[in-house]
Amino acid sequence: MASAGPGVPSANTSSNTSASAEPVWNFPTSPIPSNPLGDGQYIRSAAALIIGDEILNGKTLDRNSNYFARFCFEQGIDLKRIEVIPDEEDDIIEASRRLVKNYDFVITSGGIGPTHDDITYASLAKSFDQPLEHHAETLHRMVEMSKHRIDIVNQTAEQRTARERMALFPTRAEVLFIAPDVWVPVVRLEGKLCVFPGIPKLFQKMLDGLTPFLPLPPPEQRPFRLQIFTSLPESSIAPYLSQVQARTKASGVRVGSYPLLQRGVYVALIGRDTDLVHSLAEEVAQELEGRIISEEDALKEKAGL
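Now predict its structure.
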């Protein structure tokens, strides 16, 4: 997964400005296709395939799997697996086939830039027995959004060939343009596997933009979470939490505990019945001498450690 590659221009000027400014773009987004899972079906399970040697050797911190996990939780999708694999064709082929077979929604992150180690598209084409071909509209948008870049306009033929590799997709893939100011599309294979760049800012923008294109669970299927913080040690609250889980499991409530070193424990209650989760949270907070906290406050407190 190369650090260079598809990107989002800073769109804060008029398209009539000088060449030194980056213009505003307003490409049309793709129409919403028919449900790839079939009428009346929706995504229940998901997996993430993070591709890149730099993740495995510690050079780059993977932020995308965390963002995807939060996305899935908020949308009511059960994220079952996150895998990190190297920039190796055999690994990409094996993992992509297996995950598409087992889950409703699979994403890949990384390996779609212009360099030698960006082999995701080519590997996925082999994985699903498809040839590669340049996608004309992607090439067009790539050129249009680079006209203000003198360093790109003046590239050699070899450099242009490398850049155009980023528009070389499996032939039967869906090509979804999800934002008017991003030339790189989300490429979807087998109706399930969506290919994303590794750059976190772009990954997040494109994942959020893909939302209308996904057959998401209905709102009533989405989980609700409350957290309780207690200063008691985890060993002291373990018997009580076991009792809570045993009597609420049939109602679809999940109970988790997450200790902070020498500070206390976050207890998470997750369920689809919001009234039940609220009433249970009140009980747990009282029993554990704790307090109910919002998701935002929990994130702030953990970030401040």
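The chain has a mean pLDDT of 90.
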